[in-house]
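User: two proteins, same treatment. go.

Assistant:
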Amino acid sequence: MPRALLAVLVLLGVALSGCLRNDPADGTLTPTTPGAEADSCTNVPAPTWSQQDAALRGANAFDYVIGLICDHSGGAPKERARVPGTPQQVQGAAYLHGELKEAGWNAQFQNFTGAQYDTIMQARGGSHAQWWRDCTAADQVRMRGLPFSNVEARFGSGSRIVLLMAHWDSKRFADGDSDAKRRTEPVLGANDGASGVGLLLELARVLAKEPASTTWQYRILLTDGEDGFEDCHPLAGSTYYAEGLSAAERTLFQAILLLDMVGDEDAGFYRGCGSDTALGDRLWTVAARLDVRQFKNTTGCNGITDDHTPFEDRSMKSVDVIDYHFGEGFPSYWHTTGDTPDKISPDMLGAVGRVVQQTLKELPIAP
């Protein structure tokens, strides 16, 4: 099916489902209010990657990032901040679903509401529950009415599951900005979220060109609602997905890998995020062999709460590859309006992608 037609059909399917909708106007400043500054996507060319290339390319991953964060559907390209409850969220979900289907994966939406997430948190909570409990009454009401949409895709017929994750949403307000006006604007999230998504889309494209494994089933989970720590829905998508797994299903997950903020050319990936030391050893050993020096052989995660956390809360081991500079924290533009396409390095995406790709090839066959 032609890409353009597929995208139109998918977009209509999401919109008609009723699970994704725009919040009614309440008279307050919203994340979609235009800013005075120039749009960071205006001069960014439309993606031009080829589905035929069998090699993993950082440039392709970058194009997938651009396809998610910049809307080239008509006129001048414009920023697409994927804030839950906005039309841009609908467009983003449709884009992801379409690209995974185009790559040959069995892709589906996992739609849910803030009310369903709230029910999980009320009953169980987790290590990220404090942000949820600290929300104001008004924020809790707004949260319960929000729509969310995870996008999951599967490839391979094996009974042992490898789960690859990244979050695709972006923050409603740039609370990290020093300028008061910019703190009312949304975060584009080029690195914080979209970089991992772009890399997984490229990995999906490449893996689909190999024979489907009868030992492994690869799953890609692109989560919605991760960046809701100030909006009363922290880690919404990963929490909903992990809670929906039965005890028997959870035993099938042999490797869980989260990629978050993996596109900065000055990235530093420290060990220790997640409890799967065996998978961590493999990743960092492969990185050393491939001379990807951004994988620091030092423990410096400091208990970061991220999309791997709900799985850890449910006794599932994981690894989080996240850009966190020991002693310094996250990149300076984190959670600001400065998280734009110019912060993404195709070379870095390619380097991290090759580490992940080679690690997958070396996963042990025996249980």
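Protein 2:
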Amino acid sequence: MQKSGRALILVGALLASSLTLMPSPGLSAPSTKHSAAMAIELSGNSIADIAEAAAPAVVNLEMIRKIPLSSMPGGNMLKSFPGMEFFYNGKKVSPDQGDESGNGGADSGPFQEKRDTASGFIIRADGYILTNAHAVKDQDVIKVTLNDKRVFEAKVVGVDYFSDLAVVKIDCKDKELPCLEMGSSSNLRPGEFVVAIGSPLGYDHTVTLGIISAVGRTVTDVNGNINFIQTDAAINPGNSGGPLLNLKGEVIGVNTAIRRDAQNIGFSIPVDMARTVSTELIAHGGIARPWLGVMMKEVDDVTAKGLGVPSGTKGVLIAGFVQGSPGAAGGLKLNDVIVKIDGKDMLSPKEVKECVQGHKVGDNLSFMVLRNNSSQAISVSVGTYPNPAGKH
């Protein structure tokens, strides 16, 4: 799912045969805390060993969405010529072409299949697979291909658009499918080696090597709800939902997006979030997340002057509302300046977001806002982040 022209949701490094990481001449020796990490030796086959061990648990996803030709320009003309054959984008279609169940005629109508690929990995031996929500959204058929080339049709267990994570399940007679072990993303450091595995552009089980370029990266073009892991391990469209591994072969992230105007700037959802979300999705099929649905901007001197409020005013400007916003329903208005919530000063949109996320759906928040240069107290009930029912 493309969020803007700058970032693209995802539907190497040269390594000598032996490399030892040691401090450069003239630099002080590494601290005891980091000396073990600095002394990691990558043998000629270590990355291959990691990839080989992980491969059986990494899967390729093929999504099929059926688009009625009647929704396309000139599509209704097909119904006027029953029994005749037509071609659309080089593929033969017919007015009698039925739906997946074999029902034909005018009601079902002809359709064009749109196919996309993505990645995922098995998290439970009984067939539960973690991937991205944007990859499986609104798909009619999801096919999962294992490393041994067996193909299964998957069902969506649950989606969480807030984190862009989803769980799908395959029914396999083999109830002991190989799983990837989840590590931790809490203590990651820029410069650590990582391995990405997935199906970029349909090339399944492609392995790339890189490093963690940054942690805690906010990318509002992609998903402002997540503090991403940034990596330079090469990932491309189709890597969506694939694992980012450390040198122990543990999952530390779920590959999700790239900067389309750059080379090897990719983003992964931290595994600590993925672990919590996948557990909730398997148990409940969704997650009720607190939400206000307001678009915010930090108040600076220029903004304050434009609003006609005193210079030096601190707070967060409400710059807009999402459709169905609980904030708007609760009485907040455009150009309100949020000064306090529950008596605590609010100095940035991040602080407002963290305050809301620290509450439960249905809780009441006490806002103090500046409106038309006067203070007003407003009570707002926390809503639920929209997770459209039936949308995958």
